[in-house]
Amino acid sequence: MRYRLHEMKTSPALRAVIIVAILVVVSLLFTNYFVRDDPPANFNMTTGERPAVGFLTGHGERAIGTQYRSVAAALEGNYEVREVNLADDTSALAEISTLVVAGAPDVPDAELFEIDQFLMRGGRAIFLLDGTVIAPGTTRGQADQVNIFDFVRSYGFTVNSDLVLDEVGADVPFRSGDTTGAITYPYWPRVVPPNLSSGHPVISDLDAVVFTWTSSVAISDEMSGGLETTILAGSSGRSWTVPAESDLDPGQTFVPPGDDAAEIRAGIGPSYPLAVAVTGEFTSAFAGKPVIVEDGEGGVEFTEPPDAIDRGLETQIIVIGNARMFEDVLLVQNPSNLVLFVNAIDWLTSPTH
Fold it and tell me: Domain of 150: which CATH number?
């Protein structure tokens, strides 16, 4: 799909201010964290034991001690929140109910196998994967095709190396001297009903969700066999996609691609899935394949674990083409995203779904 960008006649200084307004740290933490009053369904009311939620770490993922402090704090009232470093302890997954993978990590094959078997045993997971990465201090995206994308593709999810623009975008504030204002930024799609799956527990109490610099998520046509698939959020009919390697400068005029511009302007263009949830039994990503184990000296060994599970128990997986939307600095402006995150963990961790 081709696209065109027309430059806005603004000064470099003003454009810099706008960019900084989007990227600047508004606050490292919320003044008041979002905390649920009701415990999750698998909270043990007798012993007070809380289910554990683990955040994968060790490969450059978003960390609960830095970028994800707000989501960790919001969960801690009802969950035991911990980091999971499989390089240090391959049994760590046995102690959690739900795994969070946030970012675009390149994970060793042996650790991916442990995650796969966790899912096969009925463990739950949410994959927040940046199909496009943005280097600090720049306004240009780039693709990052690390192996986590192939891993989730084996279950039927494809996080595309694109960026979704939507004329129904969030308003981004800016300040230049004594002048303040706001611009609608298409790279931040603001998803509202009917493009939110309001009947799903993850979405039911939300009026809007903002997806910041997000990639689209495709679901394989082969994903069938009793799997229940829900598109939790999708862009509006006034949206389009561009390659990952695109200019993110908000000081430009955004124009839909020529071939589809009329339909997009009319609101009848395609809607792109941004967040999907699937319930059911999955086939192992390693079924019929060896596991590559690194020996620590640059060599590798191909192994076939004798007790590997090829077909799993029923589980639940959520995939979103964006990890940055849950960072502290962006939750300040988009608090509903925190509600979405907590709802997702509740849904994944609850045994009643």
Answer: 3.40.50.880
Q: How far apart are CA 147 and CA 113, in angstroms?
A: 12
Distance separating alpha carbons of residues 102 and 231, to the nearest angstrom? 19
Q: Pick the more confident residue, 63 or 28.
A: 63
Whole-model pTM: value is: 0.86
The answer to whether residue 185 scores a pLDDT higher than 50 is yes
Could you tell me the residue range of the domain that residue 76 belongs to? Answer: 4-349
Q: State how far the Cα of 91 lies from the Cα of 46, in Å rounded to an integer.
A: 27
Q: Which structure tokens are listed for 314? A: 């029923």
Residues 6+ apart with CB under 8 A from 297: none
Contacts of 264 (CB under 8 A, 6+ apart): 167, 237, 238, 239, 240, 256, 257
List, as one string, the DSSP characters of 247-268: B--TTEEEE--TTTHHHHHTT-
Q: What is the tens place of the pLDDT at every residue in 188-244?
A: 999 999 999 989 999 988 999 999 999 999 998 876 567 999 999 999 999 999 999
What is the rounded distance in angstroms from the CA atom of residue 30 to the CA atom of residue 50? Answer: 24
Number of domains in the chain: 1
176 vs 156: CA distance, rounded Å: 46
The SS3 call for residue 149 is helix
The Cα–Cα gap between 9 and 271 comes to 31
Separation between Cα atoms, residue 82 and residue 73, nearest integer Å = 11
Distance separating alpha carbons of residues 37 and 162, to the nearest angstrom: 38
DSSP-derived secondary structure for 265-287: HTT-S---EEEEEEEEEEE-TTT
Judged on CB neighbours under 10 Å (0-12, 13-18, 19+), 118 is: buried
> Comparing C-alpha atoms, which of 116, 124, 341 is closest to residue 233?
341
